[in-house]
Amino acid sequence: MNNTGIFLTKGSRGFTLLELLIVLAVIAVLLSWGMPSLTQSIRNNKVLAQSNELIAMLHFTKGEALRRNADVPMVLDSDAGGWNVFVNDPAEEVAPEGCEPGQLRCSSHTGVWLDSDVASVTFNNRGYIRDADDAWTPETLFLQHDDCSGNQQRRRIDITPTGQVSSCALACDSEAACP
Questions:
Q1: Is residue 115 a contact partner of residue 143, using CB atoms and an 8 Å limit?
Q2: I want to staple 144 with a disulfide (CB 3.0 to 4.6 A). Which of 14, 91, 122, 154 is the partner?
């Protein structure tokens, strides 16, 4: 008996090197199975979070148009590094943190790109959207992860002429309509 009160038999001194290597090999196999699904989940969540931010900005812009009883534009900017969105307000002299003067609210993102020809969305005093020709046309925006490789790493965001916003997850490079 040792000084901790535990009986030790001759030869029971711990793990052998072979047992330790087997345990490490099992852990490595389990990690190699789990890592791709973890990577997919992280990418899916990043696209979902950024699409929720874009939808929040659309709702904010619509709310400001209704509150001010005036047209309020939201400007979209996208490049290879990511995308930016801001709500213009020339009357605002003090910009929120991270925004430039004349911007009521702004947001900047990386790792996901905005796939759209739409440069801005303007809501009128009734919460409706109209394009540059004052036509009642719906708008569609797509957000996709830079390394898209899954079924939920692309989001479609539809804006009806009446200002309603909806979204759904799509496979990479899909242009399908939301169900």
A1: yes
A2: 154
- Pick from 138, 128, 174, 136: which is nearest to 159 by CA? 138
Give Cα 154 distance to the centre of its chain: 9
- List average pLDDT for each run of 10 residues in the chain, which is 179 residues long: 58 78 89 75 90 94 91 86 81 74 85 87 89 78 87 90 93 88
Query: Which tokens hold the place of 57?
Result: 């900005």
Matching residue, tokens 């030790």: 8
**What is the pTM for the complete model shown?**
0.77
Burial of 157 (0-12, 13-18, 19+ CB in 10 A): buried
**Nearest of 75, 175, 172, 174 to residue 123 by alpha carbon:** 75
> In degrees rounded to 5, what are phi and psi of residue 170?
-135, 165
- DSSP-assigned letters across all residues of 22-80: HHHHHHHHHHHHHHHHHHHHHHHHHHHHHHHHHHHHHHHHHHHHHHHTS-EEEEEEEET
One-letter amino acid identity for 152? Q
